[in-house]
Amino acid sequence: MNEEQESLAAVAKASGLPLTKLQGLADRAILGALSRTYRTCGKPACHCMRLEDEKHGPHLYLSFRGVEGRTTGFYVPQRYEAAVREGLSAWTQLQRALRRGVDVGERRRAQRPLWEQAESNAWRLRALWARPRRRRRRRAS
Predict the structure, then answer these.
(1) Is there a contact between 1 and 9 (Cβ–Cβ < 8 Å)?
(2) Residue ranges making up the domain that contains 62
(3) What SS3 state is found at 38?
(4) I need a labelling partner for 33 at 20 to 30 A (CA). Which of 42, 59, 63, 133 fits?
(5) Do 4 and 22 meet the contact criterion of CB atoms below 8 Å apart?
(6) Does residue 137 lie in a domain region?
(7) Residue 76 and residue 60: Cα distance in Å, rounded?
(8) CA 114, 120, 126, 131 torsion: positive or negative?
(9) How many C-beta atoms lie closer than 10 Å to residue 26's C-beta?
(10) What is the pLDDT of residues 27-58, one digit of tens each?
(11) Residue 102 CB partners (closer than 8 Å, separation 6+)
(12) What is the average pLDDT value for the chain, to the nearest integer?
């Protein structure tokens, strides 16, 4: 069992869910938000231009945080709405399970003797300081 499988097994044990269910959730999970929009088409003779309350739609869009932290998204055809909603639900369930696993780990860590906690924290600090630091560029005056 590799490191990734071991950590997933530990989360599964802590969250109370079977490992196969966690893996299934992870395979189906979609991170994002689904929104409905109503639009006008721009044709002067169309009902959407004449009547303000009657626009075309609903059109579904999935938005998510993309590369470099920018929010992006795409159109979701109606035939895929159920699958996308299932993926979003799977993400929510997976997130809950992971939080339960973290909560259990935190409780266990709090129950350890203080000297063991101190050793663990010292190790974390050493790991942080060992990371390469980014140098700041000096501004040209």
Answers:
(1) yes
(2) 3-114
(3) strand
(4) 42
(5) no
(6) no
(7) 5
(8) negative
(9) 14
(10) 888 889 999 988 888 888 888 887 777 888 88
(11) 14
(12) 77
First to last CA, the chain: 56
Residue type, 44: P
**Tokens 């999970």, located at residue:** 29
Residues constituting the chain: 141
For the record, the structure tokens of 32 come out as: 């994002």
Q: How many domains does the chain have?
A: 1
- φ/ψ of residue 10, rounded to 5: -65, -40
Task: Kindly state whether residue 128 falls inside one of the protein's structural domains.
Answer: no
Place of tokens 């499988």: 5
Q: Quote the tokens at residue 63.
A: 């938005």
Determine how many CB atoms are found less than 10 A away from the CB of residue 15.
20
pTM exceeds 0.70, yes or no: no
- Residue 129 forms part of a structural domain: no
